[in-house]
Amino acid sequence: MEVWIFILAGFLLQPALTAPPNIVLIFADDLGYGDLGCYGHPTSLTPNLDWMASNGLRFKDFYSAAPLCSPSRASLLTGRYPTRSGVFPGVFYPGSRGGLPLGEVTIAEILQSQGYETAMVGKWHLGLGANGTFLPTRHGFQQFLGVPYSHDQGPCHNLTCFPPNTSCYGTCDLGETLLPVFLNEKILQQPVNFTGLVPRYMEFSKSFIRKAVDSRKPFFLYYASHHTHYPQFASAAYTGSSPRGRFGDALREFDGSVGELLGTVFDAGVLDNTFFFFTSDNGPETMRMERGGSSGLLKCGKGTTYEGGMREPAIAYWEGKLKPGVTSEMASTLDILPTVVALTGAPFPNVTLDGYDLSQLLLYRHKSPRNIFHYYPTSIDPERGTFALRFGKYKAHFFTQGAPASENTPDPDCHITALLKVHDPPLLFDLDTDPAENYNLFKEGVPADLEPVLDAILQERVRFLKAMEYAESQMHLGIDPSLRPCCNPECTPKPSCCHCEI
């Protein structure tokens, strides 16, 4: 079995390069805070991510800007809460009319304007639209190999896509067109061959890196993996390789892809001038039980504004530039764009950003400029605003609600039966001593010593909500079945006739 484990041995640091750094941004899908070996899972085999953690900076208090796919991805690429781009409520579907607005400025657009080669590989989920209006190639990525939306929005939810028993497709109750993989703006394959998908991604990614280095161009690679979103899949090299079952096999394939990217950059001779950052889009889908991931000690998972829904594993690695260690400084996916801008010397976009430049934290271990984080739910409503607010070590819940994706945990607060509830005064937790959000500090009323904390939290919430501008909801533009991708647009009957490989 071919398993990539990247080991740096005898690497001699070169003098600091004057060339702008390459950027590799690795985004997992539905991977929970407790899913990696370096975050404490006892049976997860993740040697490459563990290696990155031991040789880079591992975050303990890192947040995604949303507890589900599309809005979290919009915020990652723009440095803005999804409210500003209109990527709310919920997610995009194959026939969605909307997408990430073309007026939004992405990391790729900024870096492309600075002479970078840019490529996106994997799961987009920020809209397709008529004639590919919202594809990555319209948002600053010169190359795209991947899927326009989530891989469960096409094949059956209960697929088993592991060699040799590969029943990836079948009678499906979704009524959707089968999943396509795009090369730039053309469908390369429909339906996707899941068991060969990640090897295809790796071949493309490695070729992109080598060509950029050979042409002496800095590069930005955004690798947005499908792993470990349900339903899981893997290639033959990883099937049956994990004591954690099918979820573990998919996780091992993801970890192997991280090793391949690290190894390719090392072989190309640019490891010391390449900044890697890894994190996940939201918490685990616990409704899938052992096939849904783990929040570790955190409360609930995907779809909720509890810690398990939005606090994510995150690792920064830059050989010779970042001192290895672990940090409890607060950070977020919102901070990636301004940090990349600072590290590359690119100009900041002329838009309102919600992120902070973390470069001083990364390079010199200064304090994080982020001391506050606002938690938006999946069903963003301007009338309610944020559900929770972190203020230093304290977290206040103004609203709580369970979610379907967080079913099957012992905690009833996570379940769909935990209906929307208003809290006045808010629930308050000390996340330094109680990251699992078990002990409400206001259970018996507001103690005198915490009155100043509550006042400061309330003032910050009012300030934030007054300053927030809500764009038109892209999801409210609705669904048009004719927009569903089909490699043979003249065929009938759709969507079942949409089969081809170019």
From TrEMBL:
Classification via InterPro entries: Alkaline_phosphatase_core_sf (IPR017850), Sulfatase (IPR050738), Sulfatase_CS (IPR024607), Sulfatase_N (IPR000917)
Primary location: endoplasmic reticulum
Keywords: Calcium, Disulfide bond, Endoplasmic reticulum, Glycoprotein, Hydrolase, Lipid metabolism, Lysosome, Metal-binding, Signal
GO BP terms: lipid metabolic process
Cofactor entry: Ca(2+)
Subcellular location(s) per record: Endoplasmic reticulum; Lysosome
The reaction(s) this protein catalyses: an N-acyl-1-beta-D-(3-O-sulfo)-galactosyl-sphing-4-enine + H2O = a beta-D-galactosyl-(1<->1')-N-acylsphing-4-enine + sulfate + H(+)
Enzyme class: hydrolase
GO CC annotations on file: endoplasmic reticulum; lysosome
Signal peptide per UniProt: 1-18
UniProt xrefs under SUPFAM superfamilies: Alkaline phosphatase-like
One example GO MF annotation: cerebroside-sulfatase activity
Pfam family, any one: Sulfatase_C
EC nos: 3.1.6.8
PROSITE patterns named among the record's database cross-references: SULFATASE_1, SULFATASE_2
Domain Sulfatase N-terminal: 21-346
Free-text function comment from the UniProt entry: Hydrolyzes cerebroside sulfate.
Subunit structure: Homodimer at neutral pH and homooctamer at acidic pH. Exists both as a single chain of 58 kDa (component A) or as a chain of 50 kDa (component B) linked by disulfide bond(s) to a 7 kDa chain (component C). Interacts with SUMF1.
Family classification: Belongs to the sulfatase family.
Record-given protein name: Arylsulfatase A
Natural source organism: Leptobrachium leishanense
